[in-house]
Design a protein that fits this description.
heterodimer; A: 265 residues; alpha+beta; 7 helices; 8 strands; 45% helix; B: 355 residues; alpha/beta; 3-stranded antiparallel sheet; 46% helix
Chain lengths: 265, 355
């Protein structure tokens, strides 16, 4: 090990510190500047530009490592391999979970399992991906709670990605009606509700799925929202406006409570 | 036969009187519409600076305020109506022609254009219903169409015959079915945002065949239309054509605004209405709703957006303060000078384009 690392007095400590400080400042600048640039870009490009921050930060970390390692070690191939071996051993015993998450984060980044702006469900957590950190993905739930989920969840957990990099996403509003009604008129009214919502993406089709139950008829109004961030506003808009329109039709709502089914539709 | 003879007489008369505007107003299928393309790497401010003498120059000429209808011309709507009548002479001469749809960009006066064509051809006009009639599913206005029988009819404002509301499309569907089935000649007009919305929402297309529209006007066309355009360089006219989307009414409003603001060459663009930086989704919804309906009274606007009256009023006031919308006779509309900023904002939010 003594032969691997340089003697302390031969290491250019100011240069190493300068690289560390410079790298940290650059990472901080990337964290601040990229989101601002993305905000100024056209909304349709948001999902394409958001991963830029993560890629830049990863590149900076790799560059810092590449610059510092030759400064603190003897630059020979054998010694470098020895350093890698020692590092792997240390990582394997001491920080394997951390390393697993870091590697999983890189895999997620390149496989695009989730991207910034995606709306994902990992385990019991559902929300918008707001940051891809080295070890964790930051998800902000609809209740505005930040949840940090380790990347290594992707090894053994199903990831549900509602928009998968797109700005638009499917939203579903459910209605439970008394069985005695004109289904065709209800269907038309539900479709018109979605088509006249200011949140609706008219490039995508609107669909109504009906199913009959002993207590009444269940309708699912499926439509795409222009911006996934408005998912709940769109669902609320469809729900309230359709409810008023259905009441105008004289349709009665089912009164039997329905048990919620686990998972999202 | 009477209609046929009248149509031929009118077409011949219009052709004799309107040769000078044939180049400016080109009627084309909607699918062939092309917006003017900006010159590479140019921006309008730089070109304005280049196209006008330096600021504070003693010899700097001032741009005279443009006046619509100068040079002995008719109003914009009259010119467009006359050119449309010429273009549709054969179609107008046949009282059993299949329905035709005319789509025009905002501020080109589609409703007035078709009313004038209706007067010229002595065709009855199906007036748009009130928003209350639409929301209550009133059949009175549809009955008026049925009462017209199978004779020629002009429907001047399709964009005012629906409302962006769960109950606002029902009667429109019935109207379109009636138009499709009737044997008499039916001329329908719609503003471009309303048509794009209806085409997407109702998956329309087969009812009218290929709609007709005016080709975007280029720099030469603007030079021909804008009075005293000699004060503007070719580069500036090109940029105005791009900024206005080839819409002479919008270009006219932009020039008026620039001249009235007395903007220095470097700052003129900042004097045009811009989308307010601190806006909420409410402003976006208001602007979009006003565009697809070609303007709305405040109560009808409130019916199209799920929000409190206070929220909607705040959004309206915010846009009005920015010069993007204005009220006239109780109806709020996107201003001609503010239209480019509103359009850019809406397209940036993935709303359906105007063409």
């Amino acid at each position: 090990m003594n032969e691997l690392f340089r003697d302390l007095h031969t290491i250019n400590i100011p240069l190493v510190l300068a690289i560390l400080v410079g790298g940290a400042l650059t990472v901080a600048a990337v964290r601040r500047v990229v989101p601002r640039l993305v905000k100024r870009a056209p909304a349709r490009l948001r999902h394409e530009l958001l991963p830029l921050a993560t890629v830049l930060r990863l590149t900076i970390y790799v560059a810092m490592t590449g610059l510092i390692v030759p400064l603190v070690t003897h630059p020979s191939r054998e010694r470098f391999v020895a350093l890698l071996g020692a590092s792997a051993l240390a990582i394997g015993f001491a920080v394997k979970d951390y390393a697993s998450s870091v590697i999983a984060g890189m895999v997620a980044l390149f496989e695009r399992t989730y991207r910034l702006g995606d709306r994902v469900q990992i385990g019991d957590t559902y929300g918008e991906v707001r940051a891809l950190n080295l070890r964790t993905v930051k998800i902000v739930t609809p209740d505005d709670t930040a949840v940090y989920v380790p990347h290594d969840k992707i090894w053994n957990t199903a990831i549900y990605n509602a928009n998968d990099g797109a700005r638009t996403m499917l939203c579903v509003a459910k209605f439970y009606l008394h069985p005695a009604h004109d289904g065709a008129r209800v269907r038309e009214k539900l479709i018109d509700t979605a088509l006249t919502s200011p949140y609706a993406n008219l490039d995508q089709k609107v669909a109504v799925i009906a199913s009959e139950h002993p207590w009444g008829t269940e309708y699912k109004l499926k439509a795409y929202v222009l911006d996934g961030r408005d998912e709940f506003l769109f669902t609320t808009d469809m729900t309230l406006r359709a409810k008023a329109a259905l009441q105008n039709l004289g349709v009665q709502f089912a009164l039997v409570q329905v048990a919620a089914t686990p998972g999202r539709v | 036969m009477i209609e046929f003879a009248r149509g031929l007489r009118y077409a011949a008369s219009a052709m004799a009187n309107g040769k000078d505007t044939l180049q400016l107003w080109q009627w084309i299928p909607l699918s062939e519409y092309r917006r003017p393309v900006p010159p590479v790497h140019h921006n309008i401010g730089r070109l304005w600076r280049r196209g006008t003498p330096a600021e504070n120059s003693p010899s700097a000429p001032t741009l005279p305020p443009p006046q619509r209808g100068a040079s002995g011309r008719h109003s914009l709507e009259e010119e467009i109506a006359d050119s449309l009548a010429r273009h549709l002479a054969a179609w107008l001469a046949d009282p059993t022609s299949s329905p035709r749809l005319i789509v025009l960009a905002p501020h080109l006066g589609i409703e007035d254009v078709l009313r004038r064509v209706a007067r010229l051809t002595r065709s009855p006009v199906l007036e748009p219903p009130s928003s209350a009639e639409i929301l209550t599913h009133s059949e009175a206005w549809l009955d008026r169409l049925l009462a017209m029988g199978d004779g020629p009819v002009v429907v001047p404002a399709l964009h005012r015959m629906f409302l962006q509301h769960a109950d606002g499309l029902t009667r429109l569907r019935e109207l379109l079915t009636s138009v499709h089935q009737r044997r008499g000649r039916t001329l329908v007009g719609c503003e471009s945002w309303g048509w794009r919305y209806l085409r997407k929402a109702l998956r329309l297309g087969a009812v009218f065949g290929e709609p007709l529209t005016l080709q975007a006007v280029d720099a030469d066309g603007l030079a021909d239309w804008l009075p005293d355009a000699g004060g503007l360089s070719v580069d500036v006219l090109r940029q105005l054509a791009v900024e206005s989307g080839g819409n002479v009414a919008v270009a006219h409003a932009l020039v008026t605004r620039i001249v009235e603001s007395g903007a220095a060459p470097l700052q003129w663009r900042s004097r045009l209405p811009a989308w307010p930086p601190e806006s909420s989704p409410m402003e976006t919804f208001v602007a979009h709703s006003l565009l697809i309906h070609g303007g709305l009274p405040i109560d009808a606007l409130a019916a199209t957006i799920l929000a409190s009256d206070d929220e909607i009023r705040a959004g309206v006031e915010h846009l009005a303060a920015a010069g993007l919308i204005e009220e006239a006779s109780g109806t709020w509309r996107v201003t001609a000078a503010g239209y480019p900023a509103v359009r850019t904002h809406l397209l940036g939010h993935d709303y359906v384009d105007d063409f």
